[in-house]
Amino acid sequence: MSYDIKDKVTLVTGANRGIGKAIVESFIAYGVKKVYAAVRKLESANELIEKYGDKVVAVEIDLGKPQTIISAAEQVQDVEVVVNNAGVLALSNPLSENALESLKFEIDINLFGLVRIAQAFAPVLQKNGGGAFVQLNSVVSLKSYPDIATYSASKAASYSITQSLRSALKEQNTAVLSVHPGPIATDMAEDAGISDIAEPVTVVSEGIINSLKSGDFHLFPDTIARDLGEKYQSFAQNAILAEE
């Protein structure tokens, strides 16, 4: 389902830094009407507001606090595109003492947060003609790595939910895009110790714009992600996208 974000009203979670900030800036450069910068602390969006003026409006959303999501959805009834970018990472393998604690934390934000956002904003998108819903997943939603095993599990689960959202939201004419970055130059890449192979955040933000216009369901924006995406393509085409 093809979708052009130009002149649209958008909302981006985790908008104050990293990939989220890049999405805001790329969207504005492309010509969106307005971006709601969804952040946990409103003042963290001040830099974007100072730079872009009334093109950016700060909105409080904490994926771990459901009431902030509900309140935001009630406030921003003109949203046509939702990008759920916010997420958390805890370095933990399955045998770590903190494995269960890490998994609970990541599941609450990366999985439950996605469901909370989808449930709150799907009716808003439907009211405004369908629009688009973009979920930032990861290459680790397809292939797990020991030191980020719990994060990988949370992202595998969020990818599963994203697949279901694609089918559920299709009925209301909402395009759904699942984004699977590899190493990207963010604080999270620093924490994971992969900044030496990380690519610019703009490969993700600009890739989202282009993939929505192309009507894609998957986006593998960087070199490592594309390599895995090519290996996954046959299964995706014959199983995940088979209903088409």
TrEMBL record:
Gene3D superfamilies: NAD(P)-binding Rossmann-like Domain. Keywords: Oxidoreductase. One of its GO terms (molecular function) is oxidoreductase activity. InterPro entries: NAD(P)-bd_dom_sf, Sc_DH/Rdtase_CS, SDR_fam. It comes from the Bacteria. Belongs to the short-chain dehydrogenases/reductases (SDR) family. This is Short-chain dehydrogenase.
